[in-house]
Each structure stands twice: as structure tokens, then as C-alpha cells.
Here is the input.
Amino acid sequence: MSETGLQAVTRRIDEATGGARMRRLRQADWSRRLVRETQLTANDLIWPIFVRDGDGEPEPVASMPGVSRLSVAGCVDAAREAADLGIPVVAIFPYTDPALRDERGSQAVNPDNLVCRATRAIKKATPNVGVMCDAALDPYTSHGHDGVMDGERILNDESVEILAKQSVVQAEAGADIIGPSDMMDGRVACIREALDAHGLRDTMIMAYSAKYASAFYGPFRDAVGSNALLRGDKRTYQMDFANSDEALREAAQDLAEGADMIMVKPGLPYLDVLARLVRELQIPTFAYQTSGEYSMMMAATQNGWLDGPKATMEVLTAYKRAGASGILTYFAPQVASGLKTPL
Here is the structure.
């Protein structure tokens, strides 16, 4: 009997592939889950939250739909939610009253500042939830920069001295992880030395090693109140977005200075950098899904252009596929809840 056209096509496919049919493993939900190479779980998530002074209802951040500034009590509620969802860590960022900001970011080293109060309250209520605090001055300075200034110049070493003191007061308040996000040279070494000198050897450091001068930070700066204050830009200390070799040097230096973990920020536009650091350094490496990434996805979702939950899972899985040990994301509670059902 002569071969039909379809039979001929089938024969040619089988001859070319040795009988392998890649689609066999994709034909059912259970088989797709069985052979999935990359798994995203609640354990991969760090939830950034914003704290404000005072009591009352959350204050929505206009440029970040679904995200609000929380009171200290609200931060405790968020930490309890994190515990219920299996999210290991919350990261605290403050909205500082403009009246408390000054040229040197003095509130950063106040043991009773917003971050320290929120940290103490969270650790008392949910001791098994990790707390991460940023070491940076931009939420506290009147000029919106991550360090102190002399005219238009950022003073590196003077800034590092303050960052080390800030790290100590945060760790003494109960912070488990210090995240130096300032991109000053040598800050990890000075922070590690200061922590150890104060008997805080168990406090971890997750260095923002490859933090790029990016257009994706605007909504975050709205949330912490520094956007309208910022004088100029941050390109003299944050990295040039065209560079990858430099990221490797920055990360290697931070590790040599005592960092326990490193981070790439932003995340999605820099997955190549993330993958390279993971491959070459083989150290726990995290990525920050920035406020700009979050707000873009939320805007598209609200306009009906994206299926938000599906797009979020896809993007965060891409972070994991690139090698991220974990992801800082404002989607953390929604994702952790959604992960209770199969993708």
C-alpha cells in the first residue's frame, strides 16, 4: 500500500529525530510539572515593605498600584502574613518626614528611627521571619542621594562611616540582613568590621553589588519620598547600564570584603549579568524586581493588556532560571498565595 502524504511526513520526522517527540512531555499538566527544570517557591521571595510614621490606614503609593506605606503596626501585620504564606524575609524601607531629613541623613543612625522601630516590632511578633534593612542614606537626606555631599560631589569615605553606624543600629534593633545599597567603595568592609566590633557577627550582609543607574527606580523613590528631592542623578556611584565586566569586579570585591550574599538591581533588564555572576562566582545571588518593573506590569494588567498573575509567574521564573537564589519583589504575597496551586 502506498504511503500517504501524512505518513510520509511522520516517517521523515521519526527518522530525523530518532523517534523522539519533544511534545510527549508537554501533553499533560502532571507531566509538565514532573519534568519542570526550574521551580519557583515561596522560599525564593523577599517582600519589600514601606513603613511610615503614625497610625491609621495604609497610605497608597500612587505610582505603585497595590502598594502602600504602612504604619509600624501594619508592618507587623505584613510580617505575620509573610509567615503564614511561607515568605522567609521582609525588607523594610522608610518614608521619612521631610522635616527630619538633613544634609547628612542623621536619622539613619537614630536607634529609634522608623526602620529600627518597625524591626523591633516585627522581630517581637514574628521572630521566625527574617528582616532585611537597607544601608543607604537616600531615605534620610534632604538632597535624595545615598551619601553625604560637598557641593555637587558625593563624599565616599565620609558616607561609608555613616553607613557603618547605620548598619549597627539596625542590627542592634534586630535586623538579620544588612543590604548596603549605596554603591560607595569599601562600604562592605567597614560595615562588616563595625558589626563584628559590636558583637554582631551573625548579622548577614547582602550587598547590592551590581546596582545600576537605572530609569526603573522612580516609583520606589516616590514611596520613600526622595524623588522630588533628588539633586542631579546617581551616575557617579551607581553602575553604567552598559557594563557587565564591571559587575563581576564589584561583586568579587564585595565578597572579599565580607559580603555573605550579593544582589543585582534592577532584575529583568539585567538577567545576563545575574546569570554571569552566578556562573562565575557560585555564591548566593539575588535580584531585585524593581518598582519600575512592578509598576509597568501593574499598569499593563489594569489596562487589560496582560494577564497579571500569569505574567508575574513567568517573569519571576525567568529570574530563577537565570540562577537567582531569591527575588525581592512587591508581588511576593500574591505570588506565594498563587503558588499553592500549580502553574
